[in-house]
């Protein structure tokens, strides 16, 4: 059975952000143990309404929070020093479950999400215990992924290139790194085990070969820890097909057909090393699609679909537990900070 978040409800309707901080501080030992075991804590009923409310809470809990360097692939806007929009990707697109920035040598350890405006339809954040995913993968698939490894390639246009209107294009590399200083970028890449290749057309190709399984630093438990199911070329079709089965609506079925068309177009028109994102085995050979689909199936079996309520505050142990986003319509504001 999937593990549900460890949930805490505010005691009164008038609970303020300061009450949330006090609740977490008063129950610190119990909550740290629950976070290790469950992977997710959810606090509900506290009046978090603005990005600054969230920043105040997060800094009270975590004064040494990093300044928020973000090397992931979602378009994100900084709202305060530490709090960002969770993703600016269009609402129709599902974000597959993943541990944040799993492809870095030093990924975040803890995520803080908060919902400042729930969407009128959809927009839930699915959660998934990736310890269970590793446990339940077919041993042959596990063995292939471990012994043959994976290689992730991401292609970024540069500041001399006009901004793309393609919703699937990655941001530009100067936006990703927040600088045009190539020495500074080289230092960041070296720290995070990314190989940077500067291309003739002002583009940057980032390549990495991260492990697919990591041991949880505190418990030693093996955790499936990969963006394989995010970067593989069939992802739009594969995720929207599963969303269509979950929703059982004509609308979702039409988006699945659109995802299938996008997948076919990408496969036919772009060589793998030219795609925004691509993933292969470490030697460049194709990963069997059946293996990728099996990974997706196990993840979907274990996901817990968690609807948002206004003011929800969710803490995730990024070393064990993945998050995603289901499609939505209407306004929605979910924000994130991390360390
Ligand atoms: Fe994420």
Shape: globular
Fraction of residues in H or I helices: 25-40%
How many domain regions? 2
User: How would you sum up the major sheet?
Assistant: 6 strands, mixed
**Residue-averaged pLDDT:** 92
CATH class of the largest domain: Alpha Beta
**Strand percent estimate:** 15-25%
Number of strands: 18
For the record, the CATH architecture of the largest domain stands as: 4-Layer Sandwich
Sheet with the most strands: spatial strand order: 1-2-15-5-18-3
Could you say what the CATH topology of the largest domain is called?
Double-stranded beta-helix
Per DSSP, the total helix count is 11
The kinds of small molecule bound in this structure are: fe (ii) ion
For the CA atoms, what is the radius of gyration?
Answer: 20 Å
Q: So, the CATH homologous superfamily of the largest domain?
A: Clavaminate synthase-like
Distance between the termini: 29 Å
H/E topology pattern: EHHEHEEEEEHHEHHEEEEHHHEHEEEEE
Which class best fits the helix and strand makeup? alpha+beta
**What are the segments in which pLDDT stays under 50 over at least 5 consecutive residues?**
none
């Amino acid at each position: 059975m999937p593990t549900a978040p460890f949930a805490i409800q505010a005691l009164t309707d008038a609970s303020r952000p300061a009450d949330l901080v006090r609740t977490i501080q008063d129950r610190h030992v119990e909550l740290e143990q629950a976070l290790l075991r469950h992977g997710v804590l959810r606090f509900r009923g506290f009046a978090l309404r603005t990005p600054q409310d969230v920043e105040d809470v997060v800094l009270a809990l975590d004064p040494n929070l990093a300044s928020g360097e973000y090397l992931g692939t979602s378009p994100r806007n900084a709202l305060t020093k530490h709090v960002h929009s969770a993703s600016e990707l269009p609402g129709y697109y599902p974000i597959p479950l993943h541990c944040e920035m799993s492809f870095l040598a030093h990924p975040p350890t803890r995520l803080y999400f908060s919902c400042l405006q729930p969407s009128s339809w959809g927009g839930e954040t699915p959660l998934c215990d990736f310890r269970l995913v590793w446990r339940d993968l077919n041993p042959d698939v596990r063995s292939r992924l471990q012994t043959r490894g994976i290689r992730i390639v991401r292609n970024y246009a540069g500041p001399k290139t006009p901004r793309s209107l393609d919703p699937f294009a990655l941001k530009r590399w100067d936006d990703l790194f927040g600088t045009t200083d190539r020495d500074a970028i080289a230092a960041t890449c070296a720290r995070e085990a990314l190989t940077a290749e500067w291309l003739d057309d002002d583009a940057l190709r980032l390549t990495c070969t991260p492990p697919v399984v990591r041991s949880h630093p505190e418990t030693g438990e093996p955790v499936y820890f990969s963006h394989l199911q995010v970067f593989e070329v069939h992802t739009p079709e594969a995720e929207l097909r599963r969303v269509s089965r979950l929703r059982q609506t004509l609308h979702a079925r039409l988006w699945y057909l659109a995802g299938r068309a996008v997948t076919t177009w990408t496969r036919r028109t772009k060589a793998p090393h030219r795609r925004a994102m691509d993933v292969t085995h470490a030697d460049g050979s194709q990963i069997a699609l059946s293996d990728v689909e099996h990974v997706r199936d196990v993840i979907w079996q274990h996901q817990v679909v968690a609807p948002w309520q206004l003011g929800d505050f969710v803490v995730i142990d990024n070393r064990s537990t993945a998050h995603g986003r289901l499609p939505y319509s209407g306004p929605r504001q979910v924000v994130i900070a991390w360390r």
